[in-house]
Amino acid sequence: MATMQEMPDESAFQSTVSALPPSTLAIIYFHAPWAKPCEQMGVILKTLASTYPADAPIKFLSLNAEELPEVSEQYDVTAVPYIVLQKDGKTLETVSGSDAFKVRAAVEKYAGAGSGQSSSLPPAQTVTRPQENGDSTGKNLAGYAPGSQDPRTAPDYSAGEHREGEQQTNKDELHRRLGELVKAAPVMLFMKGTPSSPQCGFSRQTVAILREKGIRYGFFNILADDEVRQGLKEFADWPTFPQLWADGELVGGLDIVKEEFENDPDFLSQHAAGAPKTAA
Predict the structure, then answer these.
(1) Residue 5 CB contacts under 8 Å (≥ 6 apart), including other chains
(2) Which of 40, 45, 124, 213 is the most core-located residue (most Cβ within 10 A)?
(3) Nearest-angstrom CA–CA distance, 179 and 132
């Protein structure tokens, strides 16, 4: 699968860009380590990258806007996160901010236009019976690290009222973050473990169903982040996992997913391999 490549300096960026074939779409992501929205946008872009095969004509590049000021000036970067979509040295579109739908729509718009890339799955692996590993159809939120280092997540206990207000702020912030995560890919599976190594039978069965139906999806291992694990129960008003989301809306757990496919053979077919891409 494709990955997002960090550019350490201007020389590496220029050489990488100049070596790209004219037909390759370059997604150039400007970020700053101190900007909280950049952390979330990094998750979104890494998820998008992982939905493309490694040999697809698309390249995801990540740059620290402050450490590469010449490149930032070249692209008129005045705020982060900032994404430039470029092909053959020409800017096709720019996206400023952390709107997941806007970014995904822009990427899919140009990745699907003349790039030779159709909506396809990476090489399939067999989904086996319990006790064995599953497949790698799902795309992980690669590189995601919980924001526990953020000072806003460390309440000040010097005063009860201040603590209560701080906790409410943290809760609102978490819900904003979850709102972006559930939209990080057109179909998102929040599961225990990963598709290649599910940590519960329900997650394993859900992965098997999605694989059987050929659905392209992103996934998040809720065992790796307890904040997301607990917060998503309230955010979704759904107390168990796995949870399947489509286009930012909760579908449900394993039983609901089974019912949806049994009642409608075309359920989620727009997100299957080979289905035409549509802008969000």
Answers:
(1) 16, 59, 60, 61, 62
(2) 45
(3) 33
Domains contained in the chain, CATH given:
4-111 (3.40.30.10), 139-271 (3.40.30.10)
Q: How many CA atoms lie within 13 A of 222 on its CB side?
A: 24
CA dist 162 and 271 (Å) reads: 45
- Residue 273: CB atoms within 10 Å: 15
What are the strands, taking DSSP E only, across 97-225?
A: 139-140, 187-191, 193-194, 197-198, 218-221
140 phi/psi in degrees, rounded to 5: -75, 155
H-helix segments, 19-112: 36-50, 69-74, 100-111
Per-residue pLDDT tens over the stretch 56-111: 899 999 999 888 988 988 998 878 899 999 999 999 999 988 888 888 889 988 98
Residue 119: other Cβ atoms inside 10 A:
20
The pLDDT tens digits for 113-152 are: 433 343 333 333 333 333 333 343 444 443 333 333 343 3
Longest dimension (CA), the chain: 60
**Is the Cα dihedral 80, 85, 88, 92 positive or negative?**
negative
Cis peptide before 81 (omega within 30 of 0): yes
The 3-state DSSP class for residue 246 equals strand
Contacts 24+ apart (CB under 8 A), 267-270: 268/187, 268/213, 268/215
Dist CA 182 CA 154 (whole Å)? 25
Q: How far apart are CA 125 and CA 197, in angstroms?
A: 12
What integer is the mean pLDDT of 171-187? Answer: 89
Q: Which one is predicted more confidently, 4 or 166? A: 4
Distance separating alpha carbons of residues 86 and 95, to the nearest angstrom: 12
| Rounded Cα–Cα distance for residues 42 and 218 (Å) | 14
